[in-house]
Specification:
By secondary structure, this protein is of the alpha/beta class. Helices cover 46% and strands 15% of the residues. An 8-stranded mixed β-sheet has the order 3-8-2-1-11-17-18-14, sandwiched between helices.
Length: 508
Amino acid sequence: IAEEKSKIDVALAEAKAQEETRLAEEQKRQVEVQLEQRLAEEKSKLDAEIAAVEEKIRRELELLESGKSVKEEVVKKEVVKEEVVAEMEQEDDISTPATAPPLEEELALPDEALDLSKDLPKLSSTTSDVLTADVEALELVSMCQAEFDATYSTDVSSSDESCLLPTDYPFVSLLRDSSPYIVNHRHSTIVYHIPGDLISDVEKFNSVMDDIALTWLFGMKIVLCVGCRTQVSQRLERLEGRPSNLKSKSGVRVTTDTALRVLEEEAGFCRFEVERQLNRCLRSKGANCNVVSGCFITAKKYGVVDGVDYQHTGYPKTLQTDRINRFISRSDVVLLTPLGFTEDGQALNIKSEQLAGFTAGALKASKVVYFSTKPLVMRGSNNSRDANANQRIQMIQRSNALQILSYHGLKIHGKTGFPQWNSPTAAAKNPKVQSMLLKMGWATDALDKGVERAHIIACDDGALLEELFTARRGYGTCISQDDYEAPHPEDQNDDLLADDVGAGVIGW
């Protein structure tokens, strides 16, 4: 037993020694690997530093060579200049006085002026700013003088009727007249309605987007409501092979399953086009602004109204005003499409003009602006015997608008915004007049919810700026609150008195 025990002890000792030897070799290999890695890292760092130093030396050499070439060019120019001067002196027998200082010394600036001039911005001069005449031949003349005349009197106080002073420029007077509006509209919320037929007119669409971008630069908070009725009607006509006949007598579309699918596609297209053009206009003016769109509207179905099932057509019920105000307060533009969703997630078609008025009222916006590619304006009918006869009526009060709507048989439901026609006049049966009256109805509904002013204007180039920033030069119809205080004394809403609204008084 003792012998066996001793053998076992010897075997264990040998195994332990072998294990220790193996562990030592393993540690040695790990240390060697770590050393190799560190050496490789140090070598790469040294290589990078060497490359950086070589690049720095190369750049310095290039600068030295470029400076050398510049000096050589300057020397060549000086030599050519001296040769030209020598030839001129020989031809004209002109001798330069020995006491005359060099031209460079005469034009030299003090060191203090040179130090200050380094921080000044460099202005790009035109060819007219380059002095090519002899300094001694120059004289001061009146700014009214059109061209230089050597015989003109040097009396700068002389008057000239053709003189164009800065105050005679149209831009100066326009800017001064527009300043009250610029101040009044700054930081105010405005809702624009962009109809689908405007998006189809590329030239007008670009100009309107450019004007909207300019109002953003003036500090206005912008919400866009985009329609796509024209695009949906054209798609349905191509699908069915005949004109779409889904519009009811009320002026509201009956949205079928097919029409809803087309609406979802065309609404996405119109949203993309508005975002693309508006971003282009904002970027071209140096603005940093985002266009935000999303699901901000909860809608509800109309159901059956006057025996007509409107299927997937509805009206806006609630608006997430807190989220929209959060976006526009940080100078973003919010974009809404005519698609709303019920509480269970069903998509509904909302008339975009109604959506614009509802949004403006929910946000307590300062203005709601409806663009129209085929606008109408009101005028005093020839049958009228008062001062409004055959005169354009540009600005009216809310009470006047309600009287006009009542005369033509239109009433907007206060809760759903559904247009109700009761014995419409012959003029109201005209599609253009009906469209104008519907816009007036939803605009008046927005005023009932707290909006200060509503505008229905054309899509012409500059029409929006004329409407918002000038007095009595607007391009459309303005409806304001009865007690609205205009920012300009000439911008009062007194074109039409309450007693003037009646049969035969208002024409289109």
